[in-house]
Specification:
The protein has 80 residues and is mainly alpha-helical. 64% of the residues lie in helices and 0% in strands.
């Protein structure tokens, strides 16, 4: 679950998005090595949309409909 600090930054979830960029840079842009940071951003954004509605906007978060698709895809991959 996202912390209140994550949701109160401007833009919301910004530190989670920056963590992904830092991880990618340190790991030669191998996204597989940064899965936990991506998941943390998705959880933060999910909490952001739960709090503010699917029409809310944050530069750090994908649109709510895309976020839901990405989270479902991640859950489907995890169950294989």
């Amino acid at each position: 679950m996202a912390s209140k600090a994550d949701l109160s930054t401007d833009p919301p979830c910004h530190s989670r998005a920056c963590a992904i960029q830092d991880c990618l840079a340190k790991n030669s842009y191998n996204e597989a090595k940064c899965r936990s940071q991506v998941d943390a951003l998705y959880k933060c954004c999910n909490a952001f949309y739960a709090q503010n509605g699917d029409d809310a906007k944050s530069a750090s978060c994908p649109k709510a409909s895309l976020l839901k698709l990405k989270m479902k895809q991640g859950a489907d991959e995890g169950s294989k």
